[in-house]
Amino acid sequence: MELTMKMDATPEEFFERIEKSLIADIRMSTGKSVPAGKLNGYKYKKVTAGKKGLELKVKIKSYRRPEHYEARFTSAQGTNTISYRVTPTEDGGITVDYAENFSPSAQQGRTMAALNDKVYDFRVRHRAKSLLKSIAKDIKQARKNGITEVVLPEELTEDDPNAAE
Known about the structure:
- β2 (about 45) and β3 (about 55-65) form a beta hairpin.
- The protein has a six-stranded antiparallel β-sheet.
- By secondary structure, the protein is an alpha+beta fold.
- It has a single domain, classed as START domain (Alpha-D-Glucose-1,6-Bisphosphate, Chain A, domain 4), CATH 3.30.530.20.
- The longest helix is centred in the last third of the chain and has 35 residues, at about 110-145.
- About 35% of the residues lie in helices and about 30% in strands.
- The protein contains two helices and six strands; from the N terminus they run βαβββββα.
- The chain has helices at about 10-30, 110-145, and strands spanning about 1-5, 45, 55-65, 70-75, 80-90, 95-105.
């Protein structure tokens, strides 16, 4: 599933939100503080919220701020890959190309997988649009409030002794 959306934001503003979310997710999942400079190629495990508590292996395949982010989430059900590619536009905004693909594991039957693909595409497209609109709204609100960058509670640097290796 692919989706393209234009936003009134800079690539830096967009990636500040992505980065904040990634660092917070890693901290919640592992207890480790990872500086932004070490996100590219970083791997960790997490358990999803909800009734099922699905265990995921996460690999940040690419993190090149402010242009590209790609991650792979692997579970017993299969592998989900997401990516954001951000391109500046001439009017000072950005175009965000979002892609998400799911490959079912061998355990899931092919007939069931084909049926699930249709439902999955609809749900993913709706969720992606909502997420991108939420990021755009957050950036607009931050600008209105005069906030120029997103700061985590504990700003991490490469020299942080608590940072993950």
